[in-house]
Amino acid sequence: MERLQKVLAHANIASRRKSEEIILEGRVKVNGNVVTELGFKVEKNDKIEVDGKPIEMAQHLYFLLNKPTGYVSTTSDDKNRKTVLDLLDPELKDIRLYPVGRLDFDTAGLLLLTNDGEFTNLMTHPEHEIEKEYLVRVEGIVTRKKIVQLRNGVVIDDGYLAVPKEVRLLELDKNFKTTLISITLAEGKNKQVRKMMDAIGHPVKKLTRVRYDFLTLEGVERGTYRFLKIHEVKKLYAHSQPKK
User: Fold this and answer.
1) What homologous superfamily does CATH list for 131-212?
2) Long-range CB contact pairs, 40-43, < 8 A, 24+
3) Domain ranges of the chain
4) Which of 113, 188, 194, 204 could bridge 63 with an S-S bond, Cβ 3.0-4.6 Å?
């Protein structure tokens, strides 16, 4: 059995919060009876209607998007900036898709989109430790001592010790005085990579997420996307089980 508002959200009627409002307004019937209780649970075969129309469970969809910079990872923006949904084909615009986690406005790379709330919760819950790899170009020549400092963890956000899963020094560009680093995280604090680089005195010039668990950007050009294959979705579900 599942809570009624969760079922409405999964059917793409509205967001979980908006679905609660619809229930409280008396617009939902279960097996012919009006339900206004938010804790009400329904079974798989119950007949659910909203505004007199029976609901149909939406097909779950999963996409891998190669996000360009200059787009926000939200479904709407109060500053009128472009969102990642603007990159989708017109026939997908009516499906209530949303990003799995976020990439900053100035960050590019791999972002998942879906209409599956359970999948999103699993992928973004910190205890599941989904690995995410970033390529980061920073200002200045980063010494090996600073790389060791990154690997051991640096303090950000008023005392939080950010410890990456892996840090690799990839390139020193002495002509332009920049350094290219690969950093892998199993968490996702707000602007974490940028704050970690600031902590060692090397601000970010360019940041791209290149891997999400086992998924990469191979074959997906910047600004385009592809469907995830069913075996990829199953593998992500399997990898999202809490680590012991």
Assistant:
1) Alpha-L RNA-binding motif (3.30.70.1560)
2) 40/3, 40/4, 41/1, 41/2, 41/3, 41/4, 42/1, 42/2, 42/3, 42/4, 42/7, 43/1
3) 2-54, 62-127+219-239, 131-212
4) 113
